[in-house]
Amino acid sequence: MKQLTIIKPDDWHLHLREGIILKNIIKFSSDLFCRAIIMPNTKIPITTIDQAILYRNSIYAALPKKAKFHPLMTIYLTDNISLNDLEKGYKNNIFFAAKLYPANTTTNSSYGVKNINNIYKVFELMEKIKMPLLIHGEVNDPNVDIFDREQVFIDKELSSIIKYFPKLKIVLEHITTSYAVDFVRENNIGATITPHHLHINRNAMFFEGLNSDFYCLPVAKRESNRVSLIKAATSGEECFFLGTDSAPHLRQWKAFCGCAGIFNAPVAISSYLKIFEEENALDKFEKFASLNGPKYHNIPPNNEKITFIYEPHTIKDFIEIKDNGKVQGKIKSFHSLETLNWKLKL
Ligand code: NCD
Ligand code: ZN
């Protein structure tokens, strides 16, 4: 039987939500990953040390008994974020990084930063204390075409941030364009790449009628961009690493309100491995999934190993969200009802 054993990966971009959703979905991530950067865009965003501690405790409490999984918490930047909380939280290992959402660019980003120039003092402090900045790289200008928002963000905002804070450690998250791939390479920053942006192009949202299952932000772009992302992820280059951006939304919201986000946690590694196998790059997967991220963040890779076996299997269409055994809703999984080849060895 074909097998693949690698150092256990980390997920450098994950939405775990709260309450019963958190309790029902966390096992998918703790099975596959040792550590994950937890996004702070909860209903009330995580902007203080106290909130982060409460949220982190609720994540530990929701974990399956034997799981060894460590949430790396982030602080949600606002125009008025407390420099004191940011610095104290980073120095005391409460926050691993800070997350910049330009206001109204994605799910639960309405409290985000309205004018990035207003938080240059925050970047100055972060550069000084070596705290990583994770960026949702899109402009919020409604006059900019949604397919151009990443590129315009790079030109209008990111280039200046890098110019003024050349030592600031930056991760451009869930990149979707060839333009971003080139920019990341040329500017010595890091980038995460999601499984869904490696599999779908923008046609997916319009195949056989409007389909919100494939709607996420930044939206998938043209096929040529997907091809660049595949080349980047499978190249082994140190600046590109795994970040699932698994973003669960209950079916009722996703189907009727079309909220942005794709839930890929149950299939995350199988999904990436399909691409790496098709590219004959399985030998590069450990770098992308388990080595490049820790290296970029100056932390050691995990000690644990994990094995995947080649066993074609069909992906369930929905994950049920239960409370005390009673089904409260369901969430559609990425690759629902498709066949994937690689499976976690239990
Ligand atoms: C994310 C979510 O649902 O929280 N949605 C998404 O489309 N990716 C937020 C984000 O990372 O943009
Ligand atoms: Zn996200």
In short:
By secondary structure, this protein is an alpha/beta fold.
Spatial strand sequence of the major β-sheet: 2-3-4-5-6-7-8-9
Shape verdict: globular
CATH architecture: Alpha-Beta Barrel
Largest sheet: 8 strands, parallel
The CATH superfamily turns out to be: Metal-dependent hydrolases
* Average residue-wise pLDDT: 97
Which molecules are bound besides the chains?
A: N-carbamoyl-L-aspartate, zinc ion
* Percent strand: 15-25%
Uncertain segments: none
- Count of structural domains: 1
Q: Structural class of the helices, strands and pairings?
A: alpha/beta
Q: Which percent range fits the helix content? A: 25-40%
Distance between the termini: 14 Å
CATH domain topology: TIM Barrel
Number of helices: 11
Rounded Rg: 19 Å
Order of SSEs, N→C? Answer: EEHEHEHEHEHEHEHHEHHHEEEE
Explain the layout of strands and helices.
Layout: E1 3-7, E2 11-14, H1 19-32, E3 35-38, H2 49-62, E4 70-76, H3 83-91, E5 95-100, H4 120-129, E6 133-135, H5 149-164, E7 170-172, H6 178-186, E8 190-193, H7 195-199, H8 223-233, E9 240-242, H9 251-257, H10 268-278, H11 285-296, E10 305-314, E11 318-323, E12 326-332, E13 339-344
Parallel strand pairs: 2-3, 3-4, 4-5, 5-6, 6-7, 7-8, 8-9
Antiparallel strand pairs: 1-10, 10-13, 11-12
Helix pairs in contact: 3-4
N-carbamoyl-L-aspartate binds at residues 15, 41, 106-108, 136, 216-217, 245, 247, 260-261.
